[in-house]
Prior knowledge:
alpha+beta; Alpha-Beta Plaits; 2 domains; 4-stranded mixed sheet; disordered N terminus
Amino acid sequence: MAGFQLIDSQQDSTEPYLYIYEDSVPPFDTSSEKILALLCISGQEPPTPPDTTVPYYWLPTDCSKEIFLQTSQLIAQLAQLDARLERRNQLVWKLRTAALEDYLTKLPNRRAWNHTLRHRVYQSQTAKSPIGLAMFDLDGFKSINQQLGFLAGDQVLQSLAEVIGKMAQPPGFWARLGGDEFGYAFQSNSSEEALQHAQEVARKLERNLHQHPVAEKIPLVKELQLSGGVAYWGNLTDRVPQPLEDFLFQIASSALRQAKQEGNGQIVLGTMPI
């Protein structure tokens, strides 16, 4: 149960006020304890607690000390339950965030990508608006892992994620899909525009990564390039493959493989079979 302490600034037991603390037993250290509630007698000017969000509870002036203490017990229990619920909600939020965040780069992970892409595709189909999708990976990244070790590779991925984070602008959505592969969902008005946009994004990422401090520590970073595969859906036909998000992902993946075969730094627009 939450702790509580009876305090009387005028040494008058008929007009007390009472602090209710979190998970405490007397004696209290008011400088470190978290105050959950403040119980007061009507007409009395209570002290201002350090936390201005602390709730106040008032009792009538003819309230006996026994009723006052019984009420304080109930409020202490309610306050503690409320505090536990708040901690639970914070924990749930942290767990949900961790479940959707890549542990290394702090970008959204594959789970978040799948969820967001599904939602974006639904919005696109509902509004009959086009959608673009790109997958990128780092050419030459394997050499860094082989020559310098995985810790160096992790630093490179974290640096690229930092660059992406500074470049990313809504409604564009980025995620780390695994290894050195990153996904990017964006809006575009045509397949040509989607391809051009992906090319511009790749070149800008390369420039910013080459200028990142990690390139001074790991000179091989300056040789890295980005290959990419692009998928575009214009929503101009009623023949919609299902699920469309998986279809687009496969098109972009196939285009990325083709780009890797054509050489470093290539961006390829995937062909739509329908």
